Amino acid sequence: MTTWWRTALAELGKRWSIVRILPRAGTRLVVGLAVINVVLGALPVIFVVATSNVLGRVPEAVTGGTDSAAWRSLLAIFAVAAAAFVGQQIVAPFQNSLGELMARRIDGQMFDELMTAALRPRGIAPLEDQAALQDLRAAVDEVQHGFQSPGQACAGLLALGARYVQLIGYATIIALAFAWWAALALVVVVLLFRYGQRNGIRHYSRLRYALDGPERKIDYLRGLGIQPPAGKEIRVFGLAGWLTSTLEQAYRSWLAPLWVARRRLYLWPFFRYAVVGLVLTSMVFALTGRAAAGQLTLTGFALVMQASLGALRLSEFYPEADNQIAVGMTAYDAVQRFAQRVDTYPAEVRDEVPRRPSAAAPDVVPDPVTTIHFDQVSFAYPRQDRLVFDRLDLTIPVGRCTAIVGLNGAGKTTLVKLLARLYEPTHGAIRVDGVDIRTYPVSQWRRKLGVIFQDFARYEISAAANIGYGAIDAADDRPGIEQAARAVGMADDLARLPRGLDTPLTKQIGGGTDLSGGQWQRVALARALFALRHGSPVVVLDEPTASLDVRAEAQFFDEFAELTQGATTLLISHRFSTVRQADHVVVLTDGKVAEQGSHDELIALDGQYARLFRLQADRFTDVTQPEEVAR
Ligand SMILES: Nc1ncnc2c1ncn2[C@@H]1O[C@H](COP(=O)(O)OP(=O)(O)OP(=O)(O)O)[C@@H](O)[C@H]1O
């Protein structure tokens, strides 16, 4: 099959995809808008017919006088022309607003589809995959802003209907009033223009998508200039000059290929098609002029001229709709690709139905009784060769506090992601009292966990909800929320806010406020404690005290020990003042457990833990002795 045919078939496929999403706007709206577009296509044709007739009847009406039948017929046909003109002005706004409504309805559903796809995976892999994120961002940008979105593509497709009705109308006028070959020639010229431009638009929209990386860089750099955190550093480090020149460079490297493409895709084809079009049009006009001398009446001449000019002007309008369709469908493709990627992601946690490796496995996840065991667990991130864990064998004692220590990149956060089943091990299993956690439905297992990640969420909602989201079913347990806030030393800070616990924690909302980094961390810790109170016996805190001052850290551990009594807690920290609070310490190195034991045992072992501990403590030796710091 030739490339030409393949392109044509692909194009038809695209049109078909749009037709398939049209019903999402609702049958009545689609039919209504289609009718409006047909009417809007027909009215200019009626106008041309009526005004040409007005022109043709003027001589006879003038001769006959205002009482003559010719004058009355002139007025009648003039009324038709006026009605066609006024009709266009009345109907056109409906086309716009209904088109907008259609776009919003379809884009709204598209966004829901995108959200569903983003939330569907049980694991987090697609949201950490660069390619999937590119599709997600491209789709979200277009769908959210609704400028050239799938919904606009649908409205654009229906708007094309108006253009075709017009073109057919003009061609029919020319064929009836003059000659079929002139009608055919004009149709060919218009479609030729359209074909040339549409191809260019399609390629251009693909190129824009391919240049997503450089465009993101520009967005990122522009964002730096207006965001407070970077804004501070830009001023302190004098980075303003660097920012403007980098932004300029980024613009240039993004625009250079676009300029080349624009010339290649728009300018040269435009000249080519313009020359062919002009030659053909001139021939039609020349032949029409010749024939008109003997054959055409004044009405016929006006009909042919107006219809020809009207048809030629259409080639200006087609690109509008074509552009909407091309870019809008690129966004639709991105939505589809993202949804497919989510479904086909390798080693994904998709399984909500429990797998049963052992007939003895209970139906409901029991509270862990003795151990959580990483049994020969190996793991590499999808599409990565490097193993983060290589047959990791680690036992976390239930009902006690375990700290995980290791250098940056040792795999501490990855360990938590595996425990929370955001990823699945590529080999081995995580067992609770001997049972593989994959035996249970993901959601049931997760209900046993209260996890606060290093990059915990800062919800732009009330302080109470920020804590209550640790156990959404119990989010209205006000005393529980207050107790959690007290436990992390935030009760007074939150009470002082304008609306106390009901104050939105964002300045984006009127009456809202923002918190300091340490205060935010304490709110996140309160969330984990609230989860614990409501039946999550395993609490995992990734760098829980990184932003806490010494007093807050000490206070936190006083309360924490009491509140988490009997619970299984996992602390990941680089702070040895935090780590030594744990009953059991595990040192991770190169994907394996290098050392484990109590703080005192590991100090006595004088291995990696002791070295790291001394390194941190040495920084205080001018003030006091390491042992004192540690205590
Ligand atoms: N989503 C991801 N995709 C690919 N590789 C990843 C991903 N997340 C982490 N890694 C890699 O996995 C390794 C372990 O990362 P992890 O975040 O678990 O380390 P960590 O011990 O928590 O580090 P830190 O102390 O800096 O927080 C690192 O080499 C990191 O680059």
From TrEMBL:
- What keywords were assigned to this record? ATP-binding, Cell inner membrane, Cell membrane, Membrane, Nucleotide-binding, Transmembrane, Transmembrane helix, Transport
The molecular function terms of the Gene Ontology recorded here are: ABC-type oligopeptide transporter activity; ATP binding; ATP hydrolysis activity
Bilayer-spanning residue ranges: 29-50, 71-92, 167-193, 265-286
Bilayer topology term: Multi-pass membrane protein
Q: Give all residue intervals belonging to the ABC transporter domain.
A: 372-615
- Looking at the UniProt record for this protein, which Gene Ontology cellular component terms does it annotate, in alphabetical order? plasma membrane
InterPro entries for this protein: AAA+_ATPase, ABC1_TM_sf, ABC_transporter-like_ATP-bd, ABC_transporter-like_CS, P-loop_NTPase, Type_1_exporter
Question: Matching Pfam families, A to Z?
Answer: ABC_tran
As for subcellular location, the record says: Cell inner membrane
Q: What family is this?
A: Belongs to the ABC transporter superfamily. Siderophore-Fe(3+) uptake transporter (SIUT) (TC 3.A.1.21) family.
Q: Which PANTHER family match?
A: ATP-BINDING CASSETTE SUB-FAMILY B MEMBER 10, MITOCHONDRIAL (PTHR43394:SF1), ATP-DEPENDENT PERMEASE MDL1, MITOCHONDRIAL (PTHR43394)
The protein in question is named: ABC transporter ATP-binding protein
From which source organism is this entry? Micromonospora radicis
